[in-house]
Amino acid sequence: MTGPSANNLMAFAFCWLTLGAAAQADEWIHPGPTLPHAQLVDQDDKDRSLGTLFQDRPVLVNFFFTGCQAVCPTQTAQLALLQAEIAKRQPLTGPQPLLLSISLDPYGDTPASIRAYAERFGLVLGDKGNWLMLSGRQDELSAVWKAFDQDNGDPSQHASLFWIGHPTSKRWTRADVTTPPSVLLKLLTEAAQ
To answer: What is the CATH number of the domain that holds 45?
Structure first.
């Protein structure tokens, strides 16, 4: 099986059934988070400017750390399903959505540990996959965490929400981790409107 491992998908399906029907996204938030000018590093140890990444395209942002044993594997499996849903619907009209997974553990989440984490799930990361996993210095990440209402204390206490928005329209919403990939893709499309 390519893509997310069968065990992770089964865990995700169990969580989804246990939690019941997917929660609808919050209402649209205007103007949404004020994005900092953070300099981060991706899974390939390539420098990435958050401002450059948030160009004129819809984006989904989530927060994770590679040592997480609770919600992160479920979120990651869900994003892999979303990535497959996007690929299945090619060609999409308009810019390709970008998936950004941002670390909550700048000391443990090195590019090498992020690559190892991604390999466990069989993820397609990088510009080709329109999915980046980012880490960086504590001060740079703290500014990003603050913009997206993430507590920068204990990473294991982070929220299981996806932020979906568009930097030009400044239209954002949040969706629960149980939201089906088809709904997440619909929200990414609506964010630009």
So the answer is: 3.40.30.10
